[in-house]
């Protein structure tokens, strides 16, 4: 029905506007370069760059030994478990108690506060709870309440109230000294435990393991940055961090917890605090977090903060899949030795941590700040392309029926639904190229995310995939330039670009839909030129 993109190119270079082959090719190349420059500038203007601040404050580590000063001698008991029910406001959860057999009470107790995820006692904190119980501490791991916990909605103050019910249950146990019950919080639980401590001054202690400390949005940007650097992505990919994490509204709504600030609650913690990080945890601000806790608790006149770093340990304080034995020893010793171990010396010990960048405020896009609007825009643009293709197919079918029924049509009338010479190929390449490039970009980002979360590198995917996405984007711009030249040539020759209302509208819809997708691609960095 028309010429291919290659044929259109040959026609341009043969006849164009009377140009010779070199002149026409140069003009196409210049037009493509100008279009790419405009898209690069547009992408830079529409959103922020990513330039995290270097971390200059370093936490001083006194000794590599993590041993807790004044910790009592270790004891070993058999451990038995018992499942209990915890009544909540509007629901209930089961909890598993790990109890030392033969230990004389009343004993200290620990309630575990889960990190992100489903949080079932059958899988979570099994090793830690057993180690504590074996040393003479009653450990309680409640199931996480999930009916009020989703990806879009999390209320850390409400979650603190739910975990406080477990604290009440543990305090009521006959084996437990209610004045010696504290909490162990890991990861996301680090935004919950300080709320519990601020609202319940009688809580005996707080253990913060791999605590984010900074608001969720800042921690997310910090973690993504670290994962991408570890994966070895091209510099241009980092532009996506503030444009994704910095949105004021996310697709589907809610996510209001993303800016939750735990600082005011940490500034009211008067309990002894044990802060624990693994030096192999790239997802958390391991130096900044400890410094912030030390600063915040000092506002409450509390200097009973002990900080420990474990060499090579990951987010779960594991090395090679196993919880670090010295961490289990130090944890149980610190808990059993309270209040004597509250001011354990040295205050900061273990392997020297390294944090290159600060987890700080995330720059926000200037205009494209609503994720739902952006998603709707992409879907609408893709729908425009599909609608145009469907309309042309139906119009072509109607025309063919007319041709079969009418035998008195002239040759021109029979071919009357054809677009101007050389238009079809670039038009199809423009619409299909824009759509395929968007799909390729989404695939690339998801592939990189999988590699990053698994701490893997794959140059073919990371480097080659990004190059392929950008080449697709450039080829789409080439198609747009060729289409513009063919349309201009047809109009100068007095030809119709598209016969009939349907096909004329279809051409306009394809150009508009593809144009929107090109702007979206520019926004996400496909056309960036270092500006």
From TrEMBL:
One Gene Ontology molecular-function label: carboxylic ester hydrolase activity
This protein's UniProt keywords: Hydrolase, Membrane, Transmembrane, Transmembrane helix
TM region positions: 373-398, 419-446, 466-484, 505-526
InterPro entries given in the database record: AB_hydrolase_Est10, AB_hydrolase_fold, BAAT_C
Top-level division of the source organism's lineage: Bacteria
Gene3D superfamilies, A to Z: alpha/beta hydrolase
Domain BAAT/Acyl-CoA thioester hydrolase C-terminal positions: 165-318
Protein name: Dienelactone hydrolase
Protein source organism: Cellulomonas oligotrophica
